[in-house]
Design a protein that fits this description.
5 strands; about 150 residues; binds D-ribose; alpha/beta; globular; 6 helices; 5-stranded parallel beta sheet; Ribose 5-phosphate Isomerase B, Chain: A
Length: about 150
């Protein structure tokens, strides 16, 4: 299951990604902007990331205008490793090395062709583990130390 959400800046690209998910037989849950009207990306990030944290979704895809705001919001949440990707190299290595569970993209930055290749790479690349797990554990340590 893929949870996908966008604000208005990512609305159009979200539609392209959903069409691709359907074509490729992925189950998905859609959140956020359901038309072109302005909404606030932090709320979308919170709602979508909750689906990853409670195990309903394996991965989430978040899209805003640049991908920056929505990735900032997602990375505030303990247990979320959100990666803003602008090419397939980033998508590949954020799965291999960071075990990213949320893919973020910019709807005003990427064309649909590039974005769909990024999605494909992200969803088909596994975590390498090994020394990278130690670094993920260090990320979790930071989350635990900073808990208020
Ligand atoms: C909305 O205009 C825009 O600020 C938002 O989509 C995003 O790009 C924020 O980082």
């Amino acid at each position: 299951m893929i949870a996908i959400g966008s604000d208005h800046g990512g609305y159009e690209l979200k539609g392209e990604v959903i069409a691709w998910l359907k074509e490729n037989n992925y189950e998905y849950m859609e959140f956020g902007c359901m038309d072109g009207n302005s909404i606030d990306y932090p709320n979308v990030a919170e709602e979508v990331c909750a689906k990853v944290l409670d195990g309903t979704a394996e991965y989430a895809i978040l899209i805003c205008g640049t991908g920056i705001g929505i990735s900032m919001a997602a990375n505030k949440i303990n247990g979320i490793r959100a990666a803003l990707c602008t090419d397939t190299y980033m998508a590949k290595y954020t799965r291999l090395h960071n075990n990213a569970n949320v893919l973020c993209m910019g709807g005003r930055v990427l064309g649909a062709g590039a974005a769909l290749e990024i999605v494909d790479t992200f969803l088909h690349t596994g975590f390498e583990g090994g020394r990278h797990q130690r670094r993920i554990d260090l990320l979790t340590d930071i989350e635990n130390k900073m808990k208020g």
